[in-house]
């Protein structure tokens, strides 16, 4: 590659294979939700996505380590990652918007308040409040109780905030070429991510078995699991990404001025942390 040229990757099947794998996973998930079957199809899609991602990233790493990327390619990666995070922001904004709409408009209307308070005629005995432990339709059972924000949710908040600090320390150490320090702090970040996932799993077990919070527990259960569940998936993905970056650090990849793979993982992790702070405030505290 000569100076100032732009690297054009060779023909790759990974984008189309990744799309097909995603389609298989979504079809399996849809069949599972509607007919309570399709688990194997969904699992096949998930495994296929992981396989495609692993092989695709392998090619990208080889191209990067081969010196094929110049400053223009670096800008392309940065713009791509920036737009990806923006799309994720809009993804969560839609769910936060749904929660805001339900709490601010729909429930008060059903309670007789606001410009559409006539909706209260549907269930005249309904009392508007949040968290909604008693849905207006008697056929829908609400949760027995809700989580205290100052127990497991607070612990997970402290874990994620701490993980952002440890990741920042690791990033700064890499920029100073202190690779052992970078490796140790990054390993600590991965460990904190694993702790968050475990605690989230414990919380879900408690929700289903002791709190009556399920996907069928009215609007509260639905919004709770949609928001925290999708965020949990992002934490799992982020932890896997950081673990891969840790392996690359141990192999001597990256330099003080050429480490966008590390930097992109930092962007993603900090975004996930910020979303959790919003979840903690609007789902658990308020």
Automatic annotation (TrEMBL):
Its main location: membrane. GO terms for cellular component: plasma membrane. InterPro entries: Cyt_c/ubiquinol_Oxase_su3 (IPR024791), Cyt_c_oxase_su3_dom (IPR033945), Cyt_c_oxidase-like_su3 (IPR000298), Cyt_c_oxidase_su3-like_sf (IPR035973), Cyt_c_oxidase_su3_a-hlx (IPR013833). It is a multi-pass membrane protein. One of its GO terms (biological process) is aerobic electron transport chain. Its EC number is 7.1.1.9. It comes from the Bacteria. This is cytochrome-c oxidase. It comes from Vreelandella nigrificans. Coiled coil: none annotated. It is found in: Cell membrane; Membrane. Gene3D superfamilies: 1.10.287.70, Cytochrome c oxidase, subunit III, four-helix bundle (1.20.120.80). Belongs to the cytochrome c oxidase subunit 3 family. The chain crosses the membrane at residues 12-31, 38-57, 77-102, 185-205, 217-247, 267-285. Keywords: Membrane, Translocase, Transmembrane, Transmembrane helix. Residues 2-286 form the Heme-copper oxidase subunit III family profile domain. One of its GO terms (molecular function) is cytochrome-c oxidase activity.
